[in-house]
Specification:
seven-stranded mixed β-sheet; elongated; 35% helix; Beta-lactamase; Penicillin-binding protein 2a (Domain 2); 26% strand; alpha+beta
Length: 702
């Protein structure tokens, strides 16, 4: 009995001990869940949740006619969460029924795998219940739209596990066109307008709470919820004209390929405003291949004979006359122990200052320096300051080089320094400064600051207009400007560019330039010549100033300004003349002819009134007091109807130009995605459809 009692006591004691342990476990579990639950859940969240920066969408750079030059284009990373319940219900019935059709569609869209390969990959991930399986990376918007309509995927992420993560990438729709001017924006590496206007384009980053999931992927804790919403960057509208830019680049590239040149730059400036309409910068990147690799427009170089304009200007201001006689010594003159030599030694001795300039005589320009300024060089240097040739041009591009001018008293000063400066040596300036200088002559002595950006916009609304800026002085007396224009026209009629502009449809004023340039530590030994032509047209009513500067290969047989840079200049000018100048008269006459073509446009009433007034077009107006119009008709039979704009209903934007459509949609709070260029031909939200702020609309242009 004692043995039995002893055994029972031990059993009871063990049972009580086990029960106590169970109660302790249950108590601890209750304490952890109910008392410490919020603490441990917060600790878990702190390990899996974090606040991340949401990059703001960068603003768009437009051409002056509303074409996108640099913009954000959406790319998408596609994930599939194979853990979602509906995929596995009824032994995966939904997945099994849709997988074959889905894989056929995927194979047809991407053309990178067979339907069988896709089925194998997706089935394996489905069986493993992989969370956030990485399916495709950086697909474009059209591919994303197609995917979202495929079998299974069209059911949405909660039924199919289909997840699309949008990633904005910077794109230049016109590829290499004006690349160094427009610029690029990749991380810390920015150039061109992307760099100069970075703070305007960048916007303000937002902040969002996200949760880390498998594979290092993060998803928002709450879709669309931001701690701080990102603010989209502002847009800038440049002065770049797509047509002029294309013409300029093509003409420059053709000549550089033909002459196997090393680098080249061509620029077009609007005379009255200083607006830069085109800049082409090309450098050799392979045999017969050129790319916009550096901004040669703002890199300083010895200008050569185009600088003779400055010498002539100073001489005229000092009292010299174009008809004054000067002895050019047959094209060869010794001074300071060195020889000044003309490009062609014609044997001519006494001639006029005008003829010496027209024939680009180095001797003539050097003698003008010696005869008028050698005893007091500061008179000459003071005029350089007045012409802003000792400072940068002021163009809105970061990185313009400062002029390099050798002054009296410097270590580099020698007896020949000053005379050689008279024909463009011992001084280095950027091509943009040469362009600005010649444009000032075309503009009757008024120097305009060159600039690239016209307006800054926010949600289609202009918040800042950048007006033309004239420096508050004239570069020379009216009589000097008059004589300089005579001299520049003389170059193209009687001088070094005579052959180039024989039988031209318009009058040209300009100057050729051929300069021997240094090549690093090899100096001038490789006979590398810089060919230039700078001028404006039409000479009797200047509209555009163009500069072309090309650095040729060593020992190039063809290296003269008139035969290398000149043809490029003329090709650009010919196209601009026929397109923008000559055609103005033809267009005016054309509107008087009968036209049977129908049209349909949508635009603001202000724009319509401006167009009809300028073109003197009659029309039937039934628009009443509406601010937006639908304009329809055939030929000159024009009718208008007013459009009501309700912030809660989608208007008809078909027929609008891109700039108006974006402004109107963004004003109504819509997110705009557009494709193509021209005017609107379709809209994803139908006219009259109810809209919400933040809703997306896709518009197709013609």
């Amino acid at each position: 009995m004692d043995v039995k009692r002893d055994i029972l006591w031990r059993v009871y004691l063990s049972y009580i001990f086990v029960v106590l342990i169970c109660f302790a476990i249950l108590g601890k579990a209750f304490y952890i869940q109910q008392i410490q639950g919020s603490y441990w859940r917060g600790l878990s969240d702190s390990l899996h949740q974090r606040i991340i920066s949401i990059p703001a969408e960068r603003g768009t750079i437009y051409s002056d006619d509303g074409q996108m030059l640099s913009t954000n284009m959406p790319k998408f990373d596609i994930l599939i969460d194979f853990r979602v319940g509906p995929l596995h219900e009824k032994n995966g019935k939904l997945f099994r029924e849709k997988i074959d059709t889905l894989c056929d569609s995927l194979s047809y869209l991407f053309k990178d795998k067979t339907p069988y390969d896709y089925k194998t990959i997706l089935t394996k991930a489905f069986d493993a219940k992989e969370p956030n399986f990485e399916f495709k990376k950086k697909i474009d918007y059209q591919q994303y739209l197609a995917l979202s309509k495929f079998p299974l995927f069209k059911l949405g992420k909660y039924k199919s596990g289909f997840i699309a993560i949008e990633i904005n990438t910077r794109l230049n729709p016109y590829a290499n066109l004006g690349y160094r001017t427009i610029g690029l924006a990749r991380d810390e590496h920015k150039v061109g307008l992307e760099s100069s206007y970075d703070t305007v384009l960048a916007g303000q980053n937002g902040r969002q709470l996200v949760r880390a999931i498998a594979g290092g992927v993060t998803v928002p804790v709450q879709d669309g919820e931001f701690l701080i919403a990102p603010q989209t960057g502002k847009d800038i509208v440049s002065n770049i004209d797509i047509f002029i830019q294309q013409v300029t680049e093509k003409a420059l590239n053709n000549m550089m390929v033909l002459n196997d040149a090393q680098t080249g730059v061509a620029m077009v400036m609007e005379v009255k405003t200083g607006k830069i309409k085109a800049i082409a910068n090309l450098g050799k990147v392979g045999e017969g291949k050129y790319s916009e690799n550096l901004n040669y427009a703002t890199r300083v170089t010895e200008p050569g004979s185009t600088f003779k304009l400055v010498t002539l200007l100073n001489a005229l201001e000092h009292g010299v006359k174009l008809e004054d006689k000067i002895n050019i010594e047959g094209g060869l003159w010794s001074y300071g122990g060195k020889q000044v030599k003309d490009a062609e030694t014609s044997g001519t001795h006494e001639t006029t200052v005008l003829h010496a300039f027209e024939e680009s005589s180095n001797v003539g320009m050097a003698k003008l320096i010696v005869n008028n300024f050698i005893s007091n060089p500061q008179i000459y240097y003071k005029q350089l300051s007045k012409l802003r040739l000792d400072s940068t041009s002021g163009i809105d591009l970061i990185g313009e080089g400062r002029p390099q001018i050798t002054r009296p008293g410097s270590k580099l000063w020698a007896a020949t320094t000053f005379p050689w400066m008279g024909f463009g040596y011992n001084i280095a300036i950027a091509p943009i400064q040469t362009l600005t200088l010649y444009n000032s002559i075309a503009n009757n002595g008024v120097m305009m600051r060159p600039y690239l950006v016209n307006t800054i916009k926010e949600e289609g609304r202009v918040i800042k207009s950048i007006e033309p800026k004239a420096y508050p002085w004239t570069m020379a007396s009216p009589n000097t400007i008059k004589n300089l224009r005579i001299a520049l026209e003389g170059v193209c009629i009687n001088g070094t560019a005579k052959k180039l502009f024989t039988n031209s449809l318009y009058k040209v004023a300009g100057k050729t330039g051929t300069a021997l340039v240094s090549n690093g530590n090899k100096f001038y030994s490789e006979n590398i010549f810089q060919s230039s032509f700078v001028g404006y047209f039409p000479a009797d009513n200047p509209q555009y100033t163009i500069a072309v500067i090309i650095i040729n290969k060593p020992h190039a047989a063809n290296h003269y300004g008139a035969s290398v840079a000149g043809p490029v200049w003329k090709e650009i000018a010919d196209r601009l003349y026929s397109t923008y100048i000559q055609n103005k008269l033809e267009l005016t006459q054309a509107f008087k002819l009968k036209d049977s073509q129908s049209f349909n446009y949508a635009l603001s009433k202000t724009s319509f009134n401006s167009i009809t007034k300028h073109m003197q077009i009659p029309y039937q107006d039934s628009s009443l007091n509406y601010d937006w119009l639908q304009v329809q008709g055939v030929g000159l039979n024009v009718k208008t109807a007013g459009q009501s704009m309700d912030d809660k209903a989608m208007p008809n934007i078909i027929g609008m130009k891109l700039q108006d459509a974006i402004w109107l949609c963004e004003k109504m709070g819509l997110m705009v995605k557009c494709y193509g260029k021209g005017k609107v031909v379709s809209q994803s939200l139908a006219q009259g459809q109810s809209i919400l702020k933040g809703q997306q609309i896709q518009i197709q242009l013609n």
